[in-house]
Structures are given as structure tokens and as C-alpha cells.
């Protein structure tokens, strides 16, 4: 376990963008997260044409209108589209939805007492369509891909992202081409096939699946929806940050503990906090962000330990938590920036620890979490033992998917 050094907090959205506009926000352009090169959003985009790094959506936000929008959030609307004014889809365009978002932030008093924490919640993303947080990102990404003219969609996945893309592609009436490792949880493979996706099993890791798509996408006419290789999955994931803020009365927790593979959710939340702070919805007292990885695949933790901004690939990656088996993330520097800027931490836990923690959550709180969710609780226990998290600090753990997707992990 490694503790971050203290740094001043930096924000992804410059305050100079806060201009008085006629609407709450105006989606203006895409910006490379590394070199700053701008790209037009009105056409299909993948990564920066200059340096090949992720593109992020940038908005002009009117403070007065933003304040009014916050006060008039629609009653009864509990989905990612509740925050549509802060999302990229044009107001006159149809959205794709299966009811994604609006997941509960569940108090966990029994778990808190067990680990010596007084204020603990679990953000339960297993209640999304297709059983995971991936539905948030795919709802926005597929909506935008269809609007901008994509005809065939493709993505590599460890399982849950494939299931989400299969669902939203079917909803959009578009074919989906999915490449997943051969040992992907069986539930995900069956789910994708049942929704009509073209599923290819690859003898390797998610990085191998991504290379296969890169080799074929131009010839096949696929639009690549890989993690952070298009700009809009992260926009769906940022709604996690908006929801947590609203669910806690617009006061963020002291610590957020997040299972980190590709890291889109952590990056998205950090982006959301910057947007909300600039719009005046929250103050700038932001949470410490904790990235949790598996000991068998910990590129972010290794980079954090050695104070590098970019992570080396973790070779021979192995973990039962499919969502954490990402040996190289294109958004590595964004994850590490968020950890450092928030004075957070990067923690690795073993498979045995995360599965034991998953069972503990089930027994104490009645939630059947994925191994990735168990990893967050295992990390919390380690951070409490080390004193990095104090008993009085408020903590949000993430369960990113349903344990039902991972029955093979829990059979023995």
C-alpha cells in the first residue's frame, strides 16, 4: 500500500470557461487530455490525431443557469439522463436508454462497525442494466456513435463492457462486434450472444483483443468503442460523480475507493467534480481518490510507487477479477493525476482477499458484489489498519457489478 504525497488540487476544467450562455452548458469541442489539441465533436472521433491519447468533452457552463438547473433537477427522474444538460448529446436528439444510472448509495453500518469506520456507503452499480456500471458509459457512447453516423460498433472487453455494448447496440439497431478473452465469465458470453452480438473469443488478455480490433477496424468498417479510445464512455461514467454528490446533499465524501482496470469511472468522477465545482454546485474540498488493483495486475500501483506519470504494461497479468485484468490502460496518466491531485492512494489486494471481502459484504450487508467490489472493501481494511483512513472519515466503496456474473469465482 502506498500513500500519495500532498500536492495542490488541480482541475480538468478551467474556470475561464464559465461564460454566461443561454443554456446551462454548451458542448463545444473535444480536447486531448495530454497535449491539449482540440478536435471537432461533430464527427466521429477516437483518440487525439496528434499524440494518440484520450479526448475529453469540454463545455461552456453558465454559472447562473447552472445554479437554476441544480435547483430544478427533475423529480422522479433517476437515470444518467437526469444530468442531460451536462452531457454531450444535443437537446433535439433521441437518447438510448435501458434505465441506466440512478443506482442506490447504500449505507453499510454492519460493514462499517466491522472495520472500524463510522460513515460508510456502497455505491451499488450491479443494479444497472446488464448488471454493471458499464451501462452508463455505453448508453452515452452508443447514442453519440449512432447520431454521428457509425454503422458498426466494436470493442474489446473483459466481459461487462461487452454485455453493455451488446445491449445498447441492439437498442440502437446497430451490429456489435465483440472480442473477449476465452476465460471471460460465461454469463457475459451468453448474454452477448443472446442479444445478437458477434462474439470472438481470443486466446489472451483484453490488450490482445484490442490489438485484433485495431488490425481489422478499417477494413471491416467498425467504429472502435474501446475504453477511452472514444470520448463518450467517460461522459456516461462521470454521472457517478453527479449522483454521489446529489445523494449526499451536494457534499462529497472524504474518500472514494474505486476498482481500477481501464479507470474510466475514476477519471469520469474526477472530471464531474471539476465541472460541478466550476458550476458552483459543490465546493472544492474534493475526495481522496483510491485506485484498487489486483496483486496479479497492478500497473497503476506500480507506477504510483515509483512516482511515474505513465504506467508500464503488467506482463502475465492474472486475477479472477476480470474487470481488473487490464495490463495497460491508455488513460493511465489521468488515473495517476487524479490520485496525486486528490492526495489519494493506490492499493493492490490479492484474489483471496477480495473474494473473502466479497463474502463478508454478502454476509453483513446482503449485497452479492463482484470480486472488484470485494477488492474495494479489502483495500479499505488495509487503509484503516495503516491509519490512512480515519474512523470519522466518510467513505464510499464501489461495487461495479453483480456477483452473479462471476459464479465460477465463488463456487469453491
Write the layout of secondary structure elements.
Elements: E1 2-3, E2 25-32, E3 38-39, E4 55-61, H1 63-71, E5 105-107, H2 109-115, E6 119-124, H3 134-147, E7 153-156, H4 160-172, E8 176-181, H5 186-194, E9 198-202, H6 206-220, E10 223-224, H7 233-237, H8 239-247, E11 255-259, H9 264-279, E12 288-294, H10 299-305, H11 332-341, E13 345-349, H12 351-365, H13 371-386, E14 394-399, H14 407-410
Parallel strand pairs: 6-14, 7-8, 7-10, 8-9, 11-12, 11-14, 12-13
Antiparallel strand pairs: 1-13, 2-3, 2-4, 5-6
3D architecture notes:
Helix 3 runs parallel beside helix 4 (160-172) and helix 4 (160-172) runs parallel beside helix 5. The chain has two domains: 105-132 and 236-410, Rossmann fold, CATH 3.40.50; 134-224, Rossmann fold. Strands 1-13-12-11-14-6-5 form a seven-stranded mixed sheet, with helices on both faces. It has a four-stranded parallel sheet with strand order 9-8-7-10, sandwiched between helices. A three-stranded antiparallel sheet has the order 3-2-4. It has helices spanning 63-71, 109-115, 134-147, 160-172, 186-194, 206-220, 233-237, 239-247, 264-279, 299-305, 332-341, 351-365, 371-386, 407-410, and strands at 2-3, 25-32, 38-39, 55-61, 105-107, 119-124, 153-156, 176-181, 198-202, 223-224, 255-259, 288-294, 345-349, 394-399. The two termini are 28 Å apart. The chain is an alpha/beta fold and 412 residues long. Strand 11 (255-259), helix 9 and strand 12 form a beta-alpha-beta unit. The longest helix has 16 residues, at 264-279.
